[in-house]
Specification:
The chain is an alpha+beta fold. It is built from 4 helices and 15 strands. Helix content is 16%, strand content 32%. The strands form 3 sheets. Strands 4, 5, 6, 8, 13 and 15 form a 6-stranded antiparallel beta sheet that branches.
């Protein structure tokens, strides 16, 4: 069900690429490396909780789940790999119909809008991977065998807020049915670790398009997780959701947002 059938919760300012330059770069940790030029546009922002039917990965490209965790340790790689990834893997395989799902260090991010030692909220409309670059990146990190034994793969992001609701900079998701690939440009991602290892990452950034429909989940609870399609390798299917953080001007006494996102690479045989 499209957003036109419900009223927007607020008008939100979202950042989009200013133009189609091909030499743009973005960095979470090195603002001085950023050359990506952005322009803000005010868009209707719809609360996905208001939809008569909950959104789904298959339709809009995102969906909400209750996934409580006990005594989380978001800075502990062993806890993430031993406890959290298996918990999310089972859910993601169930929801996507995939046969195998893997993650690896560098595929999860702890973001904080206050702590400058952590990645800030990414405040521009983007998808985390560009198709050709993603194929190279996955083979480098997971190996050829897992890619070659399956027909195609996708990247599902499991995103959760770590601070109490309402959050000051929640995450917005674009209904994947309203995406137009003609609006996308490829941007280099430069992070100190990536540069040091010679790893090339490219993601997609969107130009402004008034036909895009934007949603968020208000008042994200500590036991809630949004699954959203971050990348799709099969060109016959929607590539995924543009997404961006935005300043929620409708929130009353909001908490500074901290969040944790886990990217799972899901492999399919159909």
């Amino acid at each position: 069900m499209l957003a036109a059938e419900i009223a927007p919760r607020l008008m939100a300012k979202l950042n989009f690429a200013r133009d189609r330059r091909t030499d743009y770069a973005f960095s979470n940790f090195r603002p001085d490396w950023r050359t990506l030029q952005l322009t803000a546009h005010e868009v209707p922002m719809f609360d996905a909780r208001d939809l008569p039917e909950p959104p789904t990965l298959a339709r809009e490209g995102f969906e909400l789940h209750k996934v409580p965790v006990t005594a989380p340790r978001w800075d502990d790689e062993e806890w993430i790999k031993g406890i959290y990834i298996p918990l999310l893997r089972d859910l993601v395989l169930e929801r996507t119909g995939g046969v195998e799902a893997e993650s690896f260090p560098g595929s999860w991010v702890y973001r904080d809008t206050v702590d400058d030692k952590r990645a800030p909220a990414a405040g521009h409309a983007h998808q985390d991977r560009e198709r050709e670059n993603a194929r190279v990146y996955i083979r480098k990190n997971l190996g050829d065998a897992i890619v070659d034994r399956h027909k195609w793969f996708e990247n599902i992001n499991a995103w959760r807020a770590l601070t109490p609701p309402p959050q000051d900079w929640p995450l917005a998701f674009c209904d994947q049915r309203t995406n137009d690939p003609a609006d996308w440009l490829i941007v280099n991602v430069l992070e100190p670790g990536l540069v040091a290892s010679g790893t090339e990452i490219k993601h997609l950034v969107s130009l402004y398009n008034p036909n895009l429909k934007w949603y968020y989940f208000s008042n994200m609870q500590p036991d809630e997780v949004v699954l959203f399609r971050n990348y799709m390798d099969d060109p016959a299917r929607p590539q995924g959701c543009m997404h961006t953080a935005f300043h929620d001007t409708a929130a009353v006494n909001p908490s500074p947002r901290a969040s944790f996102e886990l990217r799972l690479y899901v492999f399919h045989d159909d």
